[in-house]
Design brief:
- By secondary structure, the protein is α+β, with helices and mostly antiparallel strands.
- It contains seven helices and eight strands.
- Strands 1-2-3-4-5-6-8-7 form an eight-stranded mixed beta sheet, with helices on both faces.
- The longest helix is centred in the last third of the chain and has 15 residues, at about 140-155.
- The radius of gyration is 16 Å and the shape is globular.
């Protein structure tokens, strides 16, 4: 298995290996998303899908779209829509990373654009918009490994910049998975991103320019 390797923080299991999703099997990615819960229902289609279409899609529809986007199992595919993390050969995490223009729902949201002069059609700016860590493997550095690998992946595919739209929680507060799927601000900063705008008290836009 090829990919980016990093030490698994807080785990004695060894190293995390991150690969492009087309180098992973569909069964492995299905294992990360699980059989219930918000990741299973969404299948990372929220940003891909205009709001007008969202409610008309079944879970199976969303899964089919994700499978087509990732091209899982096709190692020769020229494109894929994300990365898969493995811990000792077990699939444990996913992040979505593609050209920002692919995310059609993102175009209608305030967060990426507020106070910024950005072209939504600029294919050279990429975005990482979603993280999923498999149940039972949280707090082992999976998101951190995926964020770092996303930087290398976007750069290697010719991106001019990579953005994220993380959430920052106040000390002592917690949040549901539905909010944290965009990633924590600290994870992005540790991966070399810098904050470029703050659309709200808890939400920021972070970026790496190559």
């Amino acid at each position: 298995m090829t990919g980016t390797t990093t030490d698994a923080a807080g785990s004695a299991a060894g190293a995390l290996v991150v690969v492009p999703a087309n180098e992973a099997s569909w069964d492995d990615l299905e294992a990360v998303f699980g059989e219930s819960g918000e990741p299973h229902r969404c299948r990372c289609q929220w940003f891909q899908t205009p709001a007008s279409e969202w409610k008309s899609l079944s879970t199976d529809d969303r899964a089919a779209r994700l499978r087509a986007q990732t091209r899982c199992g096709d190692r020769d595919a020229r494109t894929t829509s994300g990365l898969v993390a493995y811990l000792d050969g077990t699939p444990v995490g996913w992040c979505a990373v593609e050209p920002r223009s692919v995310y059609r729902h993102l175009r209608t949201m305030r967060v990426p654009w507020a106070g910024r002069d950005e072209d939504p059609d600029d294919d050279d700016v990429w975005a990482v918009v979603c993280f999923v860590t498999r149940a039972g493997y949280r707090r082992r550095g999976v998101s951190a490994a995926l964020a770092a690998a996303a930087v290398d992946f976007a750069r290697s595919r010719g991106a001019r910049a990579l953005e994220g739209y993380p959430l920052e929680l106040a000390p002592g507060t917690t949040s549901s998975w539905g909010e944290l799927y965009v990633g924590a601000r600290s994870v992005f900063l540790d991966a070399g991103f810098r904050e470029v705008s703050r659309p709200s008290k808890r939400r920021s836009v972070v970026r790496v320019d190559f």
